[in-house]
Each structure stands twice: as C-alpha cells, then as structure tokens.
Amino acid sequence: MRAFSLPTLFLLILSLSFSLHAQENISIDKIIAVVGNERILLSDVEQELLRIKMQGSTNANIDRCQLLEQLLIQKLLITQAKIDSIEVNEGSVEAEVDRRLKYFINQIGSEKALENYFNKPIFEIKDDLREIIREQHLTQQMQRKIVDKVKITPSDIKAFYKKIPSDSLPDIPMQYELQQIAIYPPNAEKAKLEAKEKLLEIRNRILNGERFTTLAALYSEDRASAIKGGELGFRSREELVKAFADAAFNLKEGQISQVVETEYGLHIIQMIERRNDQVNVRHILLKPQFTTDLLSKAVQKLDSIATLIRHDSITFENAALRYSEDKKSNLNKGLMINPFTNTSLFEKEHLQPSDFYAIKDLKEGEFSAPFESRDEHANIVFKIIKVKRIVPAHKANLKDDYAIIQVMAESSKENEIIRDWISKKIKSFYVRIDNDFHDCNFQSPGWIK
C-alpha cells in the first residue's frame, strides 16, 4: 500500500461535505468505524474517493482502505484532543470559513449558484464547512502538541543524511548569493504629505455619503483587496503590522479611522465586524508618488556610488555600509537574506522579477547597473546588486544545503513520533471497524481488533 505523509495528512479532509451534489451516487449510508466516540460513515469515504477521482486522478492505488485509515487517524487525534481539553480559536475557524466560502463563490460565480450546486441553503453549507474546519484545526493542534518537544542535534542531521539514498535527495536549482546597495527616492516627506491629503479627501467623500467599497476599488493601491472593496477578511492582531492593528482594533463597527501610516504606505480603515480577537476591516492604501526628477536623483546617486566602486575608491561592502538605506542588509555588507528560507541563497522564483533580470547574466563578483525595484512592502527602491556567489543546480548535500537536510530530518523524526503515538493509542482507545473493511492492509497495525 502507498505510504502517506503524516504532517500533511489532515489537509485532504477539508471538503468531505463539499465534493458532490446530492448523494444519489453514494451507497446507502452506514457507520463503518468508531474511534472513541467519533464515528466514520461510509459516505465520508465514498465522497472523498469520488472527490479525488473528480479532480482527474487516475492513480489505481487510491482505495477505500487508504482513505479510511486517514480518517481513523484524524478521529484518533480528535478524541485525544478532546480528552486533553484542547480548544480551537473560533475566530480563526470563522475566518477560514469565510475565506473558503468566498473562494467557492468566486469559483462558481455566485452565492445562488453555490446553493444550487450543493442543493442546500448557504447557511447549511457554511455550517458543514465550519465543522470540517474546526475538526481540522483540532487535529493540527493535537499533532503539534505531540511533536512539540522534538529536538534534533547536528549529529542527528548528519546521521539522517547518510541514510538517505542518493536518488531520494531533492534536486536543488541554481541559487544566488547576493549583496545590494539600496536607495529610496529623496524628499519622501513631500510625496507622503501629498498622498495623505489625497487620502483625507477620499475619507471626506465617504463621510459625505459615498461608498467606501467603491472608492477602494477606484483608488486603493492594494489591488488584492481593492477588487473586494478593500475588505481584508478576518485577521488577528498578530497578522497585521502594529500601526494598522492598533488603529483597526480601536474602531467601532462602521467607523472610519484617521490616516494611518505603516511600512506599506498610508491607509484609511473601516471596521466591518469584530469577532473575539479578530477583526474584519476594509482599507484604502495610497503610496507616496514621486516625480521623474526625484526618481532620477536616486539613480544618479547610485551611479556615482557604482563609479566609486569600479575605480576601487571604495569596496562594494563598505559602500553598502555607508550608503545603503536598506536597514536589514546594510550592516551586513549588503548581504541579502531570503525571507522564504531565512538563508542568504536565492532561487530564481524567490527574487523580484526586476532583481533577477538585473543579475541573470552576471558572473560572480560582478554587479548590476542601477535599476528600479520594490522592497518587501512594495515601495519604490533603486538598487545595484552584486553577485557574490552562484551555486549551480545540484543534488542536495550537507555542505551547501544544511537547512534543507535539517527540515527533512525534523520531518522524519516527527513522522516517527506520530507513528509511535498512533500505535500506542490504537491499543488504548476503543476502535471498531465494520467487517466489510477487515481485509484492509492498513499501514499502522492494530486497527482490527
């Protein structure tokens, strides 16, 4: 039987109740398994099997036994979570329900079309989805608790690496180690003041009766939310930058904030709804706009710095320390850190398109001409980038890819701990499986008692 990955096991059960129309293609339902007080229905397995096939899978190894074992493990974790009094954050559950419901509606075209598709009213669809997500959050929290104290040492990582067959090591694409000198356009305060005045005008229009959602769609520079009338969906305080969170959590329903400045630009915020420790707000984002003359001055400054480096009047590293305005890299000789991996190596997909285009033809030790880019907050910045090192595509190895091997080793250790936990709990929990499934060759022994 095909093995499955335990850390991602519970992601597949998100849409058991959302996969089909009416149940005409499913056998007469019955209870096929019980774990503690948790029941598994035949329809649970049948719906998941059909969902996988509807997605176009032709894998002959997909069978009811494998899907049933995945559900058995989920129920095992839920049972233990309830014993341990683990509780889910209902605000997070509601936020996920809203997010997924919006996704379904966007996919199918309208709320009415979604109701017709599932042959039930929207509140029932939402109730079904809420219970599925709540159980998923519960299983994930229980799983995290089981592996919470997993620690591995460098010797563990080396031992794990030696055991990996060479053909099982992941392929690592070409990577770049880069240094940068970053300069922002000058006179930002004037541009910021102009953006603030424009935002205050928009705020006054809303207070005088115009719709926030319409003006967000017209003017907000956060295009991802602008198409939804500026709505962000339910977010916790930790998911928002501090200045934005402080303003949002102090608003009453329907109230509009004053102008709020964050790393991303200038905002006005409207409270839609608050649930426990989460808020759903709309916002309109404006960024300072710079004249061509100001942008040219930033390029000219970088040109002058590049000339000094070429003439050996200063090293790239010292120039980064002296002139670069990027606070995350200037004190480290301009060395850029990949936010996806927290290392200094970048794959092509991890770079801004403008950054990759600037360095793609450079050799080690060479640096680019000045070019326009965006920082992590999507603000305009001008850069010159030096290619410190190029790592050719290769099979993962301990010397160059220690962080990757470490993650693999930790995942393997967590899998081992969860498998041991499952084996022990199968023996101590009440488990009953219908006779129709007694011939299943489950991966974990002991399910059939």
Tell me what the structure shows.
This protein is of the alpha+beta class and 449 residues long. Among the domains are: 6-151 and 410-437, Triger factor/SurA peptide-binding fold; 188-286, Chitinase A, domain 3 (Roll), CATH 3.10.50.40. The protein has helices spanning 42-54, 64-83, 90-108, 111-118, 122-146, 154-163, 188-207, 212-219, 223-226, 242-248, 292-310, 316-323, 353-359, 402-428, and strands at residues 31-35, 38-41, 171-172, 175-183, 231-236, 260-262, 265-275, 278-286, 345-347, 371-374, 380-391, 394-395, 431-433. The chain has a 4-stranded antiparallel β-sheet with strand order 9-4-11-10. Strands 5-8-7-6 form a 4-stranded antiparallel β-sheet, with helices on both faces. A 3-stranded antiparallel β-sheet has the order 2-1-13.
Kindly name the structural category: alpha+beta
Alpha-carbon Rg, integer: 27 Å
Q: So what's the overall shape?
A: flat
Strand order of the largest sheet: 9-4-11-10
CATH class of the domain at 6-151 and 410-437: Mainly Alpha
Overall CATH architecture of the domain at 6-151 and 410-437:
Orthogonal Bundle
Mean pLDDT: 86
Q: Uncertain spans, ≥5 residues at pLDDT below 50?
A: 1-26
Write the layout of secondary structure elements.
Elements: E1 31-35, E2 38-41, H1 42-54, H2 64-83, H3 90-108, H4 111-118, H5 122-146, H6 154-163, E3 171-172, E4 175-183, H7 188-207, H8 212-219, H9 223-226, E5 231-236, H10 242-248, E6 260-262, E7 265-275, E8 278-286, H11 292-310, H12 316-323, E9 345-347, H13 353-359, E10 371-374, E11 380-391, E12 394-395, H14 402-428, E13 431-433
